[in-house]
Amino acid sequence: VVSPLIALMKDQVDQLRAGGIEATFINSSLDLAEQQSRGREVLAGQHRLLYVAPERIMTTAFLDFLRRLEVNLVAIDEAHCISEWGHDFRPEYLRLGAAADALGRPTVLALTATAAPLVRTEIAERLGLRDPLVIVRGFDRAIPAAWRADTWAAVMIVRRVFGSWIRGQVILGLVVGTATFVGLVILALFL
């Protein structure tokens, strides 16, 4: 999962772990020894989700590390950062399509809550997505109570929606009230 903010990574990983989902992050908040330890854990299969910043995933050393794994999904949180039209633009986001190529073109999932039609088009183009499935929902930030109450029920609901779609590319324009939803979508697609 490519995520732009250390605090957001930590929050999402903490929420996923609280729900029993093995996830971790590797970022500059960790000293080198801890980064290496988490890297070994990832290689050993102890985590289903790995959160990193766009700057990290674009380094040759980290791409080499990822090639040692079976990466079947590159999820990009705050994907509007890919677009020059998006606020919070960061240059490394422009190269994430190249990272997906370097990893053998796994499924690419772009998640954003703030992508107007022109921004969605630019996201798809910059990521090299061909005929992506684009799902856009409204601005109601409420999540159904059942989803808040039962994480696994949420996973099953999302799996039912996306169950027939295994490999490909997608842009999700979602506005939701909890950071865990990104993880739920990712897990629902690949559990």
Structural write-up:
By secondary structure, the chain is an alpha/beta fold. The protein has helices spanning 6-18, 32-43, 54-57, 60-67, 96-102, 117-127, 145-149, 151-162, 180-190; strands at residues 23-25, 49-51, 73-76, 107-112, 133-136, 169-173. The longest helix is centred in the first third of the chain and has 13 residues, at 6-18. It is globular.
Give a short summary of the structure.
This protein is of the alpha/beta class. The protein contains 9 helices and 6 strands. Strands 3-4-6-5 form a 4-stranded parallel beta sheet, with helices on both faces. Strands 1-2 form a two-stranded parallel ribbon.
Strand portion, in percent? 5-15%
N-to-C series of helices and strands = HEHEHHEHEHEHHEH
Overall structural class, as computed from helix and strand content, comes to alpha/beta
Number of discrete helical segments: 9
Shape: globular
| Rg, Å, rounded | 16 Å
Major sheet description: 4 strands, parallel
What is the typical, i.e. mean, pLDDT? 76
Number of strands: 6
Low-confidence stretches: 146-151, 164-169, 171-180
Strand order of the largest sheet: 3-4-6-5
Q: What gap, in angstroms, lies between the N and C termini?
A: 15 Å
The share of residues in helices is 40-55%
